[in-house]
Each structure stands twice: as structure tokens, then as C-alpha cells.
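By convention, the C-alpha cell line describes the chain's fold. To illustrate:
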Amino acid sequence: MSVGGMHGSTQKHHRQAAKSRHKARKRIRAAQRKRDREVTAQHGAHGHGACGRKVRHRNETEALRAALRAMRKGAPPLWVYPCRFCGGWHLTSHPGDGSAD
């Protein structure tokens, strides 16, 4: 047996699975970056400049994590809201201000 008690074929399978997951994550990130560029270009063309200047989080969880990180570093209380223009999530310092784009 090899290191860790796995046979060579098992190790090869694990390496192939890891490579496959890595490639899938790269494809997803590339697609997300492309969508972000398209959304930013679209908002500029349609005059939604306020949204284009904000950090766009892909989902509520990501936005909440960013808000918590900022507050741990001394930012005032922050809330998150879905953007009606880009479909992403933004942070705000105004509670209940989900339409302030």
C-alpha cells in the first residue's frame, strides 16, 4: 500500500476528481466575471451609475460575510439588500434601505 493506506488507483482517482473540481470552479469563476463585466457595462449604458460604483456580491451570504468583516474592522452597522438593477447584493448603512440605488 502507498502513503495513507490508499492504493495507487485510488490515489489516481482522487487526483483526477480534484482536478475536475478545480476545472469546474475555474469555469464558474470565469462565467461570473464575464457576467459582472456585462452587468457593469449595461448599467453604465442605462444610467444606473450608483449600482456600477458599488461592490456587487453574488449572493446574500457573500454580502453578509463582507458586512461582518467590515464591522469587525470598525465600520458602522451595515445591512445587505438585493439590487433591482444588477441582481447582485449590496451593503448599506441605512436599515431597511433596499431600494436605495
